[in-house]
Amino acid sequence: MRDGHWLILDELNLAPTDVLEALNRVLDDNRELYITETQQLVKAHPHFLLFGTQNPPGVYGGRKLLSRAFRNRFIELHYDDIPPNELVNILHQKCSLPEKYAKKMVAVMKDLQQRRSLSGIFEGKYGLVTLRDLFRWAERYRRSFVSENFYDWEQLLAEDGFMLLAGRLRSKVEEDVIIEVISKHFKKSVDPLALFTSPGGLATAECLKILTGPLHEEFHHLYWTPGLLKTAVLLYRAIQFDEPTLLIGTTGCGKTTLCQLIAKLLRSELSIVNCHLHSEAADFLGGLRPIRNRNENEEQTHCLFEWRDGVLVECMKRGQCILIDEISLADDAVLERLNSVLEPERKLLVAERGGGREVKDEVIAASGFQFMATMNPGGDYGKKELSPALRNRFTEIWSTNVTSDDDYSLIIDHNIKAYLKGLLDIRDGDQYCFNANGPCNNLYRLLRGLQLKRPIMLEGAPGVGKTSLVSALAAASGHSITRINLSEHTDVSDLFGSDLPVEGINGIKFEWRDGPFLKALRSGEWILLDEVRERESNCIEVREVQKVLYSVQCPSCDAEPIELSSLDEVESKFSVTPKLNELRDIYDSMKESEGIHCGNCFIASAASYCKDCNKTLCNDCIDAHKKWSEFATHAILGLEEALKAPTESMIEEEAEEKVASHASAVLSAISGREAEIREQGEAVKEEISVVSRAGLEECKVKEIATIKHMPEEKAITFELSIELPDHELHLDLPASSISLSIEPASANTTKPSQVIDARVIPTDKPRVYQVICTPVIRGHHQVHIKALGIQLKTPSSFTIPFNPYTDQAVTPIRTIGDLQGPCSVAISDDGHIIVSECSTSIVSILSNEEKLKSFGKGTNNIIFNSNYGLVITDDGYIIVADANNHRIQRISMDGQHVTSFGCSGSEPMQFNCPRGIAISPVTKSFYIADRNNCRVQIFNCDLSFFCSFGKKGAGNGEFESPQGIAIDSEGFVYVTDFSHRIQKFTHDGKYLSKFGSNAGQLSSPTGIAVDNAGLVYVSEYGNHRVSVFTSDGDFVCSFGEYGTNENQFIQPHGGITFDKDGLLYICDTGNNRIVMNLASQSVLEGLNAVLDHRGEVS
Q1: What is the 3-state secondary structure (H, E, C) of 973-1008?
Q2: Could you report the per-residue pLDDT of 671-698, keeping only the tens digit for each?
Q3: Which stretches make up the B box-type domain (predicted)?
Q4: pLDDT tens profile 188-199
Q5: C-alpha to C-alpha distance for 387 and 63, rounded to whole angstroms
Q6: Pairing mode, if any, of strands 926-930 and 914-919?
Q7: 586, 652, 662, 931: which has the highest count of C-beta atoms within 10 A?
């Protein structure tokens, strides 16, 4: 500002509002800045200019909308996409790229922008390729050097383009899209398998030669699986062109190890920074730090603090590699501070340094500097994806995890040789017993874990011996151990240390004091972090125990525990084979070898054999062996005596003795447990009441399970039980003593009712019976039950809604035309038809013969903008979803506006294009499908907000685009999702099930209705038909096809409902009509009466 330079404020809308408001005087006409800290007024140089850049707010993470008062101080310029011809010219001039290659690359970008990425669906046309990808692609061509006279540059460009664009993708389908587009425009084939296996392609041959050659001994454990080698090649190729790289993959897939390997191959030091939630920009750039060792400096100074460069600045100056591990854990605002480092210029302005105008604040990366970063994919606990603005500055690489069993086998075979070094003999201390079964097993697993150079997590209940086992093992092996108790208040400085004030000769100074963790790390001690809690779980899974199982493990061998379900299996399944085989191997080696070595020190020759330890010992080890009180009673035999002994009989005798003693204890424990179970069973039997024959008359029937349909048998089945009066117990009778008959509840009294016989069969559930019957008509039926010849009491409300759908034929009986885009329909109690016509934004009321009235377009202050769903309340009002006005309107039957509520938004009582509406027959609550908010809102009967459920997604209980809603007689909620499925919920929005993807495959379902038998009717916008399902989601039938006839539809969009007589009304949107259908034969008898007041059949 003082020198008249041009200043660019990059990512302006990331800065806090109070910081931006401080620039107001600079942006005004007076062009001055008042510094309150120094009481100075700075006038801008005449040549000073200020520029601000930003990404659009709301699209990229952390960007906010600037206030109008601040924005109107700028001249705003909006940058559109660069035209293709200009883009070709830029590539040609900037990257020295031949024009024909530039045109092909731009054509690839334009083609990919027409497609969408599955993993970056919200990034729009930039999901598969961005402008930065295009420039990186061209830059690789410019910086490539080939000494050959003839070279296939198009093949090189095709391979580099594939690695840049497909290297980040997480699915094979998207990778195939990249190959298809590149091959289409470059006329070159790209084979991923050949590209990442030796000898490789034009772009990868050199990388593969270096990576598959001899590696540093630090990386001898590395085995090149196909996925790991592909990731390494992509990373090395990007590093060759000084591109900042971002490796994304699951935990343990080798991201950090590959970065360390690349740094070693480049002969460069690697600095690693681990990010976390509280990472700050100062962790990368540096900051003011206390001056240490002031007394040792020749020049005394009174300053307490000095500037220390951060790790990023040091690496840039020295030309070293830096790895930002778990970069996504840091805040976006911190990471955006590093944007300039990620640009091709690779420079950084360290404004935080201060020190006056003579200090140079700009740092330019030296040759050899490489920027690498790693992260886990979003979705895991505490993990998130980086913002698109930051990610597209990196060359992103997706690192696949090892999933193949063959790969695991090869990795194990490659690394297991380093750990096969013999047995480790650790003697027990006097204060801890390692021979007990529990500690012995835990010790064995702990020792196995120590063979790997990895931290070990011990998890278990309090007091089981986790800490004591580690402490005892450290003492026995001669290692010092540091124990650190953690809590929720533990800070990083408590572990690693901090700067503390120390009083010295020249006054107070700051000195660094190591924490316990850092002290132990430097001195090579073991570290025990006690009470490490990753996160607490508030969910306990309870599982019913079906049968009693016992687990028995042999104390003399390492065999897995054996599960037993009865006493008879104890001795038959108890095996000592591992013990026998082990002893036979030792005796065979003693007989075959002349020079037997000590099995304890592995150096001296063996002189004796310890029968109890099963080990050969030298004279020195025998003396040490006898000093321990625990080993003093062991049987020591000479080698000749041991070889002459009856080996097999001695081994089997010893094994049988140990097995017998152990099995005796096991049998005793199991017998006691089964005795307890028998006692509990006798106690339960005593509580069961004896029901007399007279009391049987007072029993009642209780329905247990919902009705299920059996299409193959043309039958219906349900389960029931018989309750005792005034008891919670159920009656247990043989199925042969129960008879059942069913008759229609609405049977004509002048005609004998048609009684349906039913079969009663037992089930695997106690006191529960299954009923199978074949109804012949649709409607409610009453159930009459006799037990032992006695008629049981049946509640008057106990009826079963049957529907013989296997014989039904949905028949169109009338069409209603003169409509414009009908999308919802409802039938009033007096037979009037209310239709929502979305094409003209009106609601019409029809009689059987003509349109009575229409309202909307300003009539009586009623205005709609694409009205969709509607329902009629019990008190005769019409509730309409006014979609594009994002509100719900309540209108009287005579067309008067009563009230409206809602506005655009995502909060409660706010909508974004509401569609379907339904009223619960149970709770009288209103359910509204809030389409673009991907949720359903529930309102009480007085239209006050109750709750909402659902969110954006394809999982259970999530929506892509909710359309229609229907509620059955039990209060279950059915929601159509435009992503080809139906989801079923409880009345309060808890997810139950989904259907529509098997038989009766749905295509863009919209409208939905449930008849009084529980069948679900769904109108399909994509298939031009209506499909019928049971309430459990079983496909029943479908009817309709594309066309204009009565039994055909064109894109039925929404409305489908039943009237009180069972007639089905379907909005045939594309044909601008409503089709009335006869859903079954149950209404034939009343059809004439219906037609008398509705008009003749067309």
Answers
A1: EEEEECCCEEEEECCCCCEEEEECCCCCCCCCEEEE
A2: 666 666 556 555 444 443 344 455 666 6
A3: 593-639
A4: 888 888 888 878
A5: 10
A6: antiparallel
A7: 931
Class of domain 812-1078: mainly beta
At 394 the pLDDT is 93
Give 322's pLDDT tier (boundaries 50, 70, 90).
Answer: very high
Q: What is the CATH code for 694-800?
A: 2.60.40
Q: Is the pLDDT of residue 222 over 80?
A: yes
Which of these, 960, 943, 810, 946, lies nearest to 871 by C-alpha position?
943
Taking residues 27-37, report their average pLDDT. 84
- Share above pLDDT 70 across residues of the chain, in percent, rounded to a whole number: 74
Contacts of 246 (CB under 8 A, 6+ apart): 327, 373, 374, 375, 386, 391, 394, 395, 396, 397
Instruction: Give the tens place of pLDDT for each residue, 1032-1046.
Output: 887 878 888 999 888
Query: DSSP secondary-structure letter at 645?
Result: S
Burial of 301 (0-12, 13-18, 19+ CB in 10 A): exposed
How far apart (Å, rounded) are the C-alpha atoms in residues 166 and 179?
Answer: 8
The H-or-E segment that residue 51 falls in is strand 49-52
The pTM assigned to this predicted structure is 0.42
Q: Do domains 242-292+304-399 and 694-800 have the same CATH topology?
A: no
- What residue spans define the domains of the chain? 6-72, 242-292+304-399, 479-532, 694-800, 812-1078
Q: DSSP letter for 428, please.
A: P
Measured from the Cβ of residue 208, the count of other Cβ atoms closer than 10 Å reads 21
Q: Which residue has the tokens 């025998």?
A: 622
Rounded to whole angstroms, the Cα distance separating 854 from 851 reads 8
Tell me if 841 sits within 8 A of 864, measured CB to CB: yes
Q: Quick one: how many helices (H) and strands (E) in the chain?
A: 29, 55
Q: For residues 912 and 962, what is the distance between their CA atoms, to the nearest angstrom?
A: 12
Q: Helix or strand or coil: residue 742?
A: strand
pLDDT digits (tens, 9 = 90+) for 623-674: 777 766 667 777 787 776 776 665 555 555 655 565 566 556 666 666 666 6
Q: What is the mean pLDDT of the chain?
A: 78
pLDDT, residue 776, reads: 54
Question: Residue 468 contacts by C-beta under 8 Å, 6 or more apart in sequence?
Answer: 432
Q: What is the pLDDT of residues 66-100, one digit of tens each?
A: 888 788 888 888 888 888 889 999 998 888 889 99
Please say if the pLDDT value at position 282 is more than 70. yes
Query: 242-292+304-399: which CATH number, 3.40.50.1820, 3.30.365.10, 3.40.50.300, 3.30.450.20?
Result: 3.40.50.300
Rounded CA separation 309/286 (Å): 4
The residue among 718, 723, 807 whose CA lies nearest residue 770 is 718
CB 616 within 8 A of CB 601: no
**Nearest to 352, CA basis, from 307, 388, 389:** 307
Tokens of 447: 């020792």
